[in-house]
Amino acid sequence: MNEVKWAIITGADGGMGREITRAVAKAGYRIIMACCNSRKAETVRQRLIEETGNPHLEVMAVDLSSMKSVVSFAEQILRRNLPVFLLMNNAGTMETGFTITSDGFERTVSVNYVAPYLLTRKLIPVMVRGARIVNMVSCTYAIGCLDFPDFLNRGKLGKFWRIPVYSNTKLALLLFTFELSEQLREKGITVNAADPGIVSTDIITMHKWFDPLTDIFFRPFIRKPKKGASTAIGLLLDEKEAGVTGQLYVNNHRKNLSDKYTNHVQKEQLWEVTERALASWLK
Fold first, then answer.
1. What is the largest CA-CA distance in the chain?
2. Which of 130, 222, 233, 254 sits between 20 and 30 A of 239, alpha carbons compared?
3. Does the keyword Oxidoreductase apply (predicted)?
């Protein structure tokens, strides 16, 4: 009798999310499509079932700008005691204006970092030995800067600007990847980060991007979602990546990072600050 394996993919109805979900479905996993827009996700689910022949795709609503929603989602998984083999933290946003969530977090920070942190921490009890966690980061982590105590509730020091705020969240998610990988090593659960490159998804509107100059510079490098998703898919499914943990992958290859990132001076501080901010939801 074949072992039932579950995968959870956030933002499964988006550009890269669909490609990741398609690949995981073809690999025979039962999938929870964790999405904010249930109606859109249901349409995507039906198409993916037809394309892959895998009927075991399920849409579950979750709003990553609400910690209450994240906890509710996680608790449903815990109550069902699903054996989770794959967790893909794929969903992301780049807000064009400054917005504070009901929990007091800047919205980009909530969706891109705080919610994946909370979701992952809550789901660890049902993750099996050999499970893989993959966090979708971005090359922009390289220009990220974590300003405490402003990071969680403002994204950055000073005036809001979407590019550095987005970059800061991706640096935070990368540092979370490194720290969590160390904590879960003995449990046999791997944690890695995937950099998809610059991808044509809903985060980027091709007709009006960051500004004219960056549009001219970056447009030749913008990838289709399928190519952008391939690195994350490899980390989730390739047998050769079994046991690999605490790494960043770019273009399907491990990227050698300097000590500046792997032992970032703020890595432990970020963990402690986030734990305190989420204490009431981590109970």
1. 58
2. 222
3. yes
Residue with tokens 């659960």: 189
Are the beta carbons of 38 and 73 closer than 8 angstroms? no
Amino acid present at 235: L
Q: Half-sphere exposure of 134 toward its Cβ, with a 13 Å CA cutoff?
A: 34
In terms of pTM, does the model score above 0.70? yes
What's the CA gap between 196 and 6, in Å, rounded?
23
Instruction: Tell me which residue has tokens 């075991």.
Output: 56
Six-digit token string for 19: 């490609």
Q: Are strands 30-35 and 57-61 parallel, antiparallel or unpaired?
A: parallel
Catalytic site positions? 166
pLDDT in tens, 25-57: 999 999 999 999 999 999 999 999 999 999 999
What is the 3-class SS of the chain, one letter each residue?
Answer: CCCCCEEEEECCCCHHHHHHHHHHHHCCCEEEEEECCHHHHHHHHHHHHHHHCCCCEEEEECCCCCHHHHHHHHHHHHHHCCCEEEEEECCCCCCCCCCECCCCCEHHHHHHHHHHHHHHHHHHHHEEEEEEEEEECCHHHHHCCCCCCHHHHHCCCCCCCHHHHHHHHHHHHHHHHHHHHHHHHHHCCEEEEEECCCECCCCCCCCCCCCHHHHHHHHHHCECHHHHHHHHHHHHHCHHHCCCCCCEEECCEEECCCHHHHCCCCHHHHHHHHHHHCCCCCC
**Fold of domain 6-277:** Rossmann fold (3.40.50)
Instruction: Please name every residue paired with 192 in a beta bridge, in sequence order, or none if there are none.
Output: 134
Q: Quickly state the pLDDT bin for 222 (edges 50, 70, 90).
A: low
Spatial separation of the C-alpha atoms in residues 10 and 16, rounded to whole Å: 10
